[in-house]
């Protein structure tokens, strides 16, 4: 009995130490965010342990744990009014959400949606994305195609990009649009986080293909990851330890995506791969000059981290670091000029905030009509967390703004 009185306070103190993180005062639902982050960290550590024992890849374990928890949340989703079917578009699995037909039999709007998760986690079939796509289909009276691209470690760049591009091009075929009663002139391509990366890359490629008869009217990017050139932008410095995506975790996702050696993580963190003596990177530097692309409220007092001498071998080993199919922010101005009307949602408490803001500014400079929708109290990944117990006020706030923009512009 006496031992229990000692162990219980010790366990409580350890739990509080593990869960607690200092957060900016403006973050919504701070304790709920701490608990979400602690749960995610615990799952990651369990995955790493199983990986260390050589029983399975830790990302496969992490995704299994996410999907196991997801089974509970699936029960709370009702799709009575939305028809949900699985299909294969040019060899790529997709999930299609169709609203009920209207009496006037008019054509519907269409949205291609690409889920996030660091190119490694989640699925078009998880509750968070089923719920989002169902609500989008219902609110917009649109056919929503959610792409189930292959994940790390079974697939690496450029396979995720190719999956997203093939499925999108299949949907854009006039006969496929006719099958789903979709108006060819009212189609958007969208995605969050890594899905925003794929959506931007796919949209850029579609703009270059002259034989396409149907093109997206809009693109909508939710806290997209768009560059691996500079891991010391103001948002990367400011939010380096923020849940749910601290800087070292984002760098690891890039290394997983490119099948790179994780011994290079520190070199990437200090921008050795884009130092001034790395010739391959020089021509891209002007396309990602955050000192001119970001507003003062984002730059604050942060200083650029530019190494005079670096490690040129990193680019040689991972040329995808400068491949615009993986890093859409590095696209040339001619490509950006061809992009459709664009929506970019960013969150203050997110390492990727400046990726989205810089892309919005470059598109605007290229003559594209852009809406930058910035949320001061939100964090990375927030928009999909609308189901109990991971329901955040920030999720409803951002989702409402996103769907409102689509409704007004699509």
Automatic annotation (TrEMBL):
The active site is at 193, 350, 380. GO terms for molecular function: acetylalkylglycerol acetylhydrolase activity. It is an enzyme of class 3 (hydrolase). Residues 111-269, 321-383 form the Alpha/beta hydrolase fold-3 domain. Its EC number is 3.1.1.71. It is found in: Cell membrane; Microsome. This is Neutral cholesterol ester hydrolase 1. It is a single-pass type II membrane protein. It catalyses: a cholesterol ester + H2O = cholesterol + a fatty acid + H(+); cholesteryl (9Z-octadecenoate) + H2O = cholesterol + (9Z)-octadecenoate + H(+); a 1-O-alkyl-2-acetyl-sn-glycerol + H2O = a 1-O-alkyl-sn-glycerol + acetate + H(+); 1-O-hexadecyl-2-acetyl-sn-glycerol + H2O = 1-O-hexadecyl-sn-glycerol + acetate + H(+). GO terms for biological process: lipid catabolic process. It comes from the Eukaryota. Keywords: Cell membrane, Endoplasmic reticulum, Glycoprotein, Hydrolase, Lipid degradation, Lipid metabolism, Membrane, Microsome, Signal-anchor, Transmembrane, Transmembrane helix.
């Amino acid at each position: 009995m006496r031992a229990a009185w000692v162990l219980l306070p010790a366990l409580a103190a350890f739990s509080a130490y593990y869960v607690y993180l200092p957060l900016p005062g403006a973050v919504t639902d701070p304790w709920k965010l701490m608990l979400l982050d602690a749960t995610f960290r615990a799952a990651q550590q369990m995955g790493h342990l199983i990986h260390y024992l050589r029983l399975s890849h830790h990302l496969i374990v992490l995704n299994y744990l996410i999907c196991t928890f997801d089974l509970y949340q699936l029960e709370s989703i009702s799709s009575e009014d939305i028809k949900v079917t699985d299909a294969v578009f040019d060899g790529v699995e997709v999930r299609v959400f169709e609203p009920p037909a209207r009496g006037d039999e008019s054509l519907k709007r269409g949205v291609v949606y690409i889920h996030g998760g660091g190119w490694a986690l989640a699925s078009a079939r998880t509750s968070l994305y089923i719920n989002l796509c169902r609500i989008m289909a219902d609110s917009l009276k649109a056919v929503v195609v959610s792409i189930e691209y292959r994940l790390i470690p079974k697939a690496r760049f450029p396979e995720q990009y190719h999956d997203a591009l093939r499925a999108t091009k299949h949907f854009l075929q006039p006969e496929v649009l006719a099958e789903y009663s979709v108006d060819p002139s009212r189609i958007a391509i969208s995605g969050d986080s890594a899905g925003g990366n794929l959506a931007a890359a796919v949209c850029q490629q579609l703009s270059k293909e002259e034989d396409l008869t149907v093109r997206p009217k809009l693109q909508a990017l939710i806290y997209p990851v768009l560059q691996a050139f500079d891991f010391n932008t103001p948002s990367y410095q400011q939010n380096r330890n923020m849940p749910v995506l601290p800087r070292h975790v984002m760098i690891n996702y890039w290394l997983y995506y490119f099948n790179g050696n994780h011994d290079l993580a520190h070199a990437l963190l200090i921008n050795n791969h884009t130092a001034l003596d790395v010739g391959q990177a020089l021509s891209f530097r002007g396309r990602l000059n955050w000192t001119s692309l970001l507003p003062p409220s984002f730059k604050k007092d942060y200083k650029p981290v530019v190494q005079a001498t670096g490690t040129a071998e990193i680019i040689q080993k991972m040329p995808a670091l400068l491949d615009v199919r993986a890093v859409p922010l590095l696209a040339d101005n001619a490509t950006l000029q061809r992009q459709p009307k664009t929506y970019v949602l960013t969150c203050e408490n997110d390492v990727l905030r400046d990726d989205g803001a810089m892309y919005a500014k470059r598109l605007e400079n290229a003559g594209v009509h852009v809406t930058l929708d910035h949320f001061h109290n939100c964090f990375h990944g927030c928009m999909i967390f609308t189901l109990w117990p991971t329901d955040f006020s920030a999720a409803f706030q951002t989702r409402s703004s996103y769907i409102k923009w689509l409704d007004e512009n699509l």
